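tokens incoming
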């Protein structure tokens, strides 16, 4: 098996693990709304952490054998895998829009896969790593602060999941850098100088995990997961192309085709998000005290309901009439 094929295989299995972890995270978020970021006492949440950890390890292996601009777009298959997995494990069947979205996302990613070219293994310098870490931290912090001021659950979820996707994407960039430096050093001895990068990876991964967990609160599975899976590869691939010298085949034509494939994949993810978000909204219970107006035909309208109202109005008007008039009238027989 070639290095590129092994990288694709590891990335696909990683996407399956991430999809399973996302489903578990959404279920935990729906049962523990009071603990949005880290429900440490919830045993099932640690299963989600383990699944995400497995996905991360497989993702690292994929980055070690393949280019960043190839591995990261394959991570968008997480939402495609989560669709049938959610239908099986949590009984959420996909509609026609979701099936079209899955086909579009798969076709777009297949196009990106065929157009992605390889590049020589490169790393980032110390100054570039520091600047990238600072910019990412500031961006994630701003998104987090803005999300805390938003009251609508879906908008807050999109902001938090965007921050999570950016954190995961830059964590992948640092992971790729550490992997390249480790291969160049030829052993574990080279990891000593990579301690700041490893700490950055750990911090970004932990932040992404907690932000994504909070994003599932009150917003269902589709919207947060689709946002993370789009933001993650976009951020990482942009860094890979601009800083690592990765490219697409066939020059300008290949780049234009790759952008078109990216648009197709993004359209598929939007369809997936719309379909799943609509289904989730329909299942939400109506808050107490909120009534819904239902148009009723006049033929079946309960007319007797008007009688108590008119009777009450007459009862309120009747005391204003002088009662003495009925008592002072002389009967005709006594005149």
């Amino acid at each position: 098996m070639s290095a590129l094929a092994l990288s694709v295989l590891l990335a696909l299995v990683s996407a399956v693990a991430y999809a399973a972890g996302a489903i578990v995270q959404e279920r935990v978020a729906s049962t523990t709304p009071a603990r949005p970021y880290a429900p440490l006492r919830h045993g099932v949440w640690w299963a989600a952490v383990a699944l995400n950890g497995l996905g991360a390890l497989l993702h690292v292996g994929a980055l070690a054998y393949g280019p960043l601009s190839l591995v990261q777009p394959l991570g968008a298959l997480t939402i495609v895998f989560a669709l049938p997995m959610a239908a099986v494990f949590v009984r959420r069947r996909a509609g026609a829009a979701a099936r079209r979205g899955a086909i579009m996302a798969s076709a777009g990613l297949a196009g990106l896969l065929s157009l992605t070219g390889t590049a020589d293994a490169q790393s980032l310098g110390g100054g570039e790593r520091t600047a990238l870490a600072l910019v990412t931290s500031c961006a994630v912090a701003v998104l987090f602060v803005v999300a805390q001021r938003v009251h609508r659950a879906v908008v807050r979820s999109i902001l938090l999941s965007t921050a999570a996707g950016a954190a995961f994407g830059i964590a992948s960039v640092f992971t790729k850098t550490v992997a390249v430096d480790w291969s160049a050093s030829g052993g574990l001895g080279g990891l000593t100088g990579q301690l700041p990068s490893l700490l950055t990876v750990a911090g970004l991964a932990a932040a992404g995990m907690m932000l994504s967990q909070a994003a599932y609160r009150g917003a269902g599975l589709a919207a947060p997961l689709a946002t993370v899976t789009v933001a993650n590869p976009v951020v990482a691939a942009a860094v890979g192309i601009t800083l690592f010298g990765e490219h697409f085949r066939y020059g300008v034509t290949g780049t234009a085709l790759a952008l078109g494939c990216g648009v197709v994949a993004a359209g598929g993810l939007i369809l997936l998000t719309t379909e799943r978000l609509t289904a989730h909204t329909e299942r939400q219970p109506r808050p107490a005290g909120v009534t819904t107006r239902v148009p009723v035909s006049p033929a079946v309208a309960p007319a007797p309901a008007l009688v108590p109202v008119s009777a009450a109005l007459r009862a309120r008007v009747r005391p204003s009439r002088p009662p003495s008039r009925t008592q002072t009238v002389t009967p005709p027989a006594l005149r």
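note: Confidence is low (pLDDT under 50) at residues 296-307, 309-313, 324-335.
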